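re: the backbone from monday

yeah here it is again, tokenized this time
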């Protein structure tokens, strides 16, 4: 026996007295000299005694070795390794001493010799944690924190929760001891020796009576101590000496702890509790709180090993392990962190472990999971969706005779799809709504057809589904307009999700919609496909990109479907001109991938090649049904030309198709690239021109060929140019071409005549375009001035002459004489007496059609308007002369085409002659109330363009007419108006809504008695056309008010409230505005506006109506709320509140007295607003009334009487009542705590539910015992 174990008796007694918590230094004379060699020798000599019959205790007695001294000396070395600054040798000695102690405990007779001591045993078990360097662990923890903060596109403030695991943030000093790789290997050997010693002990020494010691076994921490190559094998028949890796030893130790030798049923619960954190990918720090670990390959492998171990335990123990497996799964669900990667891994773990359950227990857990999925915490509902998706990847369970009848329905995949996934489609949280839609789309991609079949059931007729979803109505936890499944059309609901206010929900709904279309769950109809294409113009950047990707995926799945092709073009092509550069790049990438890169030579084309066939189909649509996308398509080629995308091979491939079946598409592409290609095969292009002149070519192809001719004109010789010019002139003078070809021909003619000298170019244009003008003048004279000309009128020919005249006159204004102008005017008036050459003036107050009833067809007159507008563009005096006539034409003309073209002409003239046209903008804006939707939409679009470019200002009644379009009878026009106001005009002028708000109140009520507002000039007909006066229009007026207020800033809301008080309420108090019938309407409407939730400052409405998007949770948003409150204080300070009360309350009190004297019905609206004010400014109001207690008592009494009256009225109301139309919300006293004004706003819906049809309270967060979750501890 080494000398060191013979310690002084006094020193040994002191160690035992201190119960191995501290020791005095040993005498230097007996300090070990050979390091760990002495321990190794002693260990090797003692190891055989674990199995030998000879007693080692007898040997100790024969050699005079005191067991008490031996234990004391071992504890000295064990405690020496606890220090953070311990040397390598001290750490190795501590591990070896601990191993020796555990070895001695395992030798028969250790109990009799009193070797076991609880504190020393636990200290030895903790030696691994104390001796293994913590620097690597701490570094990994810091990396984990950085990873969690960078996880996702937008980080959320970290929140602490008792149910969730907090990251241990204890800051400790860095270790000063440096460890070389050789040192770490030596320490690892000591750790392995200690663990093996513990395993040998557990085989011999039961811990049933020492549960705390069993809890302190460090096996769970060692499961991810080091990576393992290959798969671990679990089992009781393994030899400890053959085990080489730490995880292998650790799981063997956990398996030993599961036996009855080390406890009753709690032992299994204890083991599963330790494995829980490995599955959750967490590690316990020194503070005892688990911390997240970075999801590295090693951590993921350790998680898989833990799942495999639990599966092995369940397989071996079977029935006794099932209750604890259920507990484990429940705790995984409740302790899962709200991070995507961790949730996914956790859901996979739950699914794998559920596979070990028999059908009855499986169905019971799914029922529990269904309740869990309806809890208030968003993280729970999100995880339930992930678990459902993981379960859908497994084979469907079939019921056996052991499953209760009421649980059979929980076994099917159909329940998971219908109730767990689709049931969350209307969740209160936008995060959950979006995730549910994403999961719905993922169900369609699963290999099993069960998910697709279940989803098809959902989107079939709702009548056939009503009997299968008895639970669906209980899923809804919102109190908004989301109705039960049985009463809502599923497809309509999905389309509403595509327009959801939350960006993430719209993205996920697009993914779901694309999946349904891709797998033919819903019909590939134009309406469904339009939903996708329209989202490429969504305000949110991420939604636009998602829509583009969905269209690409759908086109890949259905390349032959023409409707899909059209939707793809209408979504992708306009995105080329998007304001966001990244969207432009995405659209260009889609176009290049689908069209540009697929153009091969005609010789290599095969109709069996789906990609090439798709390319030419798309080009064919662009030439036919989607010609309106041409200008966006041209923009794409402009961008590509800067990137040198058009190679010589690409051009040659295009030209090879110009004489084949895809000639139209080939000429389309050539017309886009010809201007950027330095060299083309001019011979083939000129041959195509000759074919065009000699044969009938489609209109679109003709235009494209003419465009190519214009692009290559500068490279042609003069003889060729002259020949083409002669062909074009001859062609134009025949007047047999369609209007589109006429315009393209004149444009090509001008490009062919372009010369270096401007004078030469103008001479060319005067010669050829002037010739066309003369031909048109001669023809129109023959038709109009001939007595029988109108009777034998060829409408098509007259239109072509008028159109050619207008197009040609733009290039040769000097060739346009008065006679031509009068001829065009005559087409509109058809009064020969007015057409004489001596007649130069036109009565400015009369429209062109008022000189004489026109005998010309409507289409001829409409084209005459366009031609006259083109003539005015070149002659200012003509504009001045005809503008009044155009304005009157808008008012009196009954022909749709004529009025539409007049709007176009006047808006174009506004760009050229802004000041001159400005006085006629009211005439144009009056068309916003035209009876024809086409004219209203066109006027709205053109006025928006003029306002954007500041050719038109917000003067007079223009703003109010524009904003009134928000309540247009056509929903598409109202939606377009909202888009124009919010996304185009408000960005340019952020204060325009607040500047005009007060005047809106007077204008829309047609109230003109105020000295300042609503004083701009309007004729009676325009007033009547735009009037929203009367109770029948109240909802429309409040729709406008709400829209304006929603887009106010908090500062604007505060200022507008003060201005309303000063400019409206104060005017009634001072008598400036009479309190007559009209005045009462305005005053009542003013109180209705002040009572709207949209006018409340966000700092106040956020506190009152928290949880509109996310339900309130246990400390879930604690940190976020704290940050928000700091920001809100900057906007809503106590000073601002005081200013508000001091300016509003005196006016309200005076108004109340006045209304009481006159017994005005407006008093009800005033009291409703006053009660609402008490909620938001309770403390300030109390302070205000502190000086006048009598007044405070009177106000309190009046408010109570008002409440009783309102509740009495509500008791007789039906649920069809609508308080959202601008009336004052109802209120009720919540409690009276001694203060004067302790009132809380309920809202009309709450009163109706309380008084008429009380409903069951929403299901909140269940307690643990309600969910049958047994705690581990």
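seq for it, each position gets an aa:
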């Amino acid at each position: 026996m080494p000398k060191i174990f013979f310690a002084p008796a006094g020193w040994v007694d002191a160690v035992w007295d201190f119960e191995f918590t501290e020791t005095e230094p040993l005498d230097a004379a007996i300090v070990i000299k050979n390091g760990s060699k002495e321990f190794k020798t002693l260990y090797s000599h003692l190891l055989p005694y674990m199995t030998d019959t000879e007693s080692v205790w007898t040997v100790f007695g024969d050699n005079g070795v005191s067991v008490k001294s031996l234990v004391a000396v071992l504890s000295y070395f064990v405690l020496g390794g606890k220090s953070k600054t311990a040397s390598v040798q001290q750490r190795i000695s501590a591990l070896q001493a601990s191993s020796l102690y555990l070895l001695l405990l395992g030798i028969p007779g250790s109990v009799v010799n009193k070797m076991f001591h609880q504190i020393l045993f636990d200290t030895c078990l903790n030696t691994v944690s104390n001796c293994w360097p913590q620097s690597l662990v701490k570094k990994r923890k810091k990396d984990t924190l950085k990873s969690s903060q960078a996880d996702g596109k937008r980080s959320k403030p970290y929140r602490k929760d008792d149910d969730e695991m907090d990251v241990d943030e204890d800051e400790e000093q860095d270790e000063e001891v440096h460890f070389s790789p050789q040192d770490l290997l030596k320490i690892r050997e000591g750790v392995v020796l200690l663990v093996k010693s513990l395993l040998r002990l557990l085989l011999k020494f039961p811990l049933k009576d020492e549960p705390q010691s069993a809890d302190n076994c460090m096996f769970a921490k060692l499961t991810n101590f080091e990576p393992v190559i290959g798969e671990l094998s679990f089992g009781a028949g393994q030899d400890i000496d053959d085990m080489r890796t730490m995880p292998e030893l650790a799981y063997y130790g956990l398996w030993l702890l599961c036996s009855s030798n080390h406890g009753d049923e709690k032992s299994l619960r204890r083991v599963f509790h330790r494995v829980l954190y490995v599955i959750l990918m967490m590690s316990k720090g020194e503070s005892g709180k688990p911390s997240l670990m970075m999801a590295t390959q090693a951590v993921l492998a350790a998680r898989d090993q833990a799942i495999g171990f639990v599966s092995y335990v369940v397989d071996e123990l079977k029935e006794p392990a099932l209750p604890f497996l259920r507990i484990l799964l429940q705790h995984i669900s409740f302790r899962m962190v709200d991070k995507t990667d961790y949730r996914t891994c956790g859901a996979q773990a739950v699914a794998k472990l559920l596979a070990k359950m028999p059908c009855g227990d499986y169905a019971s857990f799914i029922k529990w999971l269904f309740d869990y999925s309806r809890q208030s915490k968003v993280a729970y509902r999100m995880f339930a969706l992930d678990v459902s998706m993981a379960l859908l990847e497994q084979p469907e369970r079939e019921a056996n005779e052991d499953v209760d009848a009421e649980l059979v329905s929980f076994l099917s995949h159909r329940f998971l799809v219908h109730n767990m996934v689709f049931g969350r489609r209307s969740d209160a949280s936008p995060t959950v709504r979006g995730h549910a839609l994403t999961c719905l789309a993922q169900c369609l991609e699963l290999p099993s057809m069960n998910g697709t079949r279940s989803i098809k059931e959902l989107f079939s007729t709702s009548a056939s589904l009503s009997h299968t979803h008895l639970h669906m109505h209980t899923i809804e936890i919102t109190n908004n307009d989301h109705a039960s499944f049985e009463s809502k059309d599923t497809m309509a609901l999905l389309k509403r999700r595509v327009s959801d206010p939350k960006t993430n929900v719209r993205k996920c709904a697009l993914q779901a919609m694309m999946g349904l279309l891709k797998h033919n769950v819903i019909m590939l109809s134009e309406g469904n496909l339009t939903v996708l294409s329209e989202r490429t113009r969504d305000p949110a950047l991420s939604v636009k990109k998602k829509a583009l990707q969905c269209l690409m995926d759908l086109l890949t799945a259905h390349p032959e479907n023409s409707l899909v092709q059209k939707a793809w073009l209408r979504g992708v092509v306009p995105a080329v001109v998007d304001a966001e550069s990244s969207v432009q790049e995405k659209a260009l990438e889609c176009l290049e991938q689908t069209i540009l890169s697929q153009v091969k030579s005609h010789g290599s084309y095969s109709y069996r090649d789906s990609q090439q066939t798709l390319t030419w189909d798309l080009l064919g649509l662009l030439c036919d049904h989607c010609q309106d996308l041409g200008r966006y398509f041209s923009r794409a080629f402009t961008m590509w030309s800067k990137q040198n995308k058009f190679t010589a091979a690409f051009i040659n491939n295009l030209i090879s198709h110009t004489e084949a079946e895809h000639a139209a598409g080939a000429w389309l592409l050539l017309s886009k690239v010809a201007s950027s290609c330095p060299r083309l095969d001019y011979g083939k292009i000129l041959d195509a021109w000759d074919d065009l002149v000699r044969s009938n070519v489609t209109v679109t192809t003709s235009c494209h060929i003419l465009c190519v001719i214009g692009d290559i004109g500068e490279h042609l010789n003069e003889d060729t140019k002259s020949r083409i010019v002669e062909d074009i002139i001859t062609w134009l003078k025949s007047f047999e071409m369609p209007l589109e070809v006429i315009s393209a021909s004149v444009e090509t003619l001008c490009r062919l005549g372009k010369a270096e000298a401007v004078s030469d170019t103008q001479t060319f244009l005067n010669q050829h375009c002037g010739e066309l003008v003369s031909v048109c003048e001669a023809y129109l004279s023959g038709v109009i001035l001939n007595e029988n000309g109108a009777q034998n009128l060829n409408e098509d020919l007259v239109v072509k002459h008028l159109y050619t005249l207008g197009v040609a006159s733009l290039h040769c204004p000097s060739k346009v004489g008065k006679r031509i102008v009068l001829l065009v005017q005559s087409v509109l008036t058809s009064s020969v007496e007015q057409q004489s050459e001596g007649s130069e003036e036109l009565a400015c107050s009369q429209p062109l059609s008022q000189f004489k009833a026109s005998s010309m067809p409507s289409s001829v007159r409409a084209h005459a308007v366009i031609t006259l507008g083109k003539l005015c563009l070149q002659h200012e005096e003509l504009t001045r002369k005809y503008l009044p006539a155009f304005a009157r034409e808008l008012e009196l003309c009954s022909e749709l085409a004529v009025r539409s073209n007049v709007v176009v002409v006047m808006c174009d003239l506004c760009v050229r002659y802004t000041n001159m046209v400005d006085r006629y903008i009211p005439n144009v804006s009056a068309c916003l109330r035209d009876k024809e939707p086409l004219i209203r939409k066109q006027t709205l679009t053109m006025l928006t363009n003029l306002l954007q470019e500041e050719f038109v200002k917000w003067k007079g009644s223009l703003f109010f007419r524009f904003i009134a379009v928000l309540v247009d009878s056509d929903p598409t026009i109202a939606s377009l108006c909202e888009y124009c106001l919010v996304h185009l005009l408000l960005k340019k002028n952020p204060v325009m809504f607040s500047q005009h708000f007060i005047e809106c109140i007077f204008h829309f009520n047609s109230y003109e008695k105020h000295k300042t507002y609503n004083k701009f000039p309007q004729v009676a007909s325009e007033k009547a056309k735009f009037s929203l006066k009367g109770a029948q229009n109240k909802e429309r007026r409040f729709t406008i008010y709400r829209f304006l207020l929603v887009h106010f800033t908090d500062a604007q809301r505060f200022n507008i409230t003060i201005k309303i008080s000063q400019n409206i309420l104060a005017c009634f108090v001072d008598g400036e505005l009479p309190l007559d019938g009209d005045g009462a309407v305005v005053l009542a409407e003013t109180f209705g506006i002040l009572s709207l939730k949209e006018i409340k400052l966000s700092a106040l409405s956020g506190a009152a109506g928290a949880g509109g998007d996310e339900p309130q949770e246990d400390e879930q948003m604690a940190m976020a709320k704290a940050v928000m409150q700091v920001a809100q204080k900057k906007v809503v300070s106590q000073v601002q509140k005081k200013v508000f009360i001091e300016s509003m309350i005196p006016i309200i009190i005076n108004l109340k007295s006045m209304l009481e004297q006159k017994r005005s019905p407006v008093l009800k609206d005033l009291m409703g607003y006053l009660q609402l004010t008490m909620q938001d400014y309770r403390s300030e109001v109390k302070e205000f009334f502190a000086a006048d207690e009598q007044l405070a008592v009177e106000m309190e009494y009046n408010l109570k009487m008002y409440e009783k009256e309102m509740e009495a009225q509500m008791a007789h109301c039906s649920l069809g009542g609508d308080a959202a139309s601008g009336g004052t919300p109802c209120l009720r006293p919540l409690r009276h705590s001694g203060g004067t004004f302790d009132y809380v706003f309920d809202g009309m819906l709450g009163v109706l539910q309380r008084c008429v049809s009380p409903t069951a309270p929403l299901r909140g967060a269940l307690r643990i015992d309600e969910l049958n979750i047994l705690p581990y501890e």
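The first helix runs from residue 9 to 17. The two ends are 44 Å apart (CA to CA).
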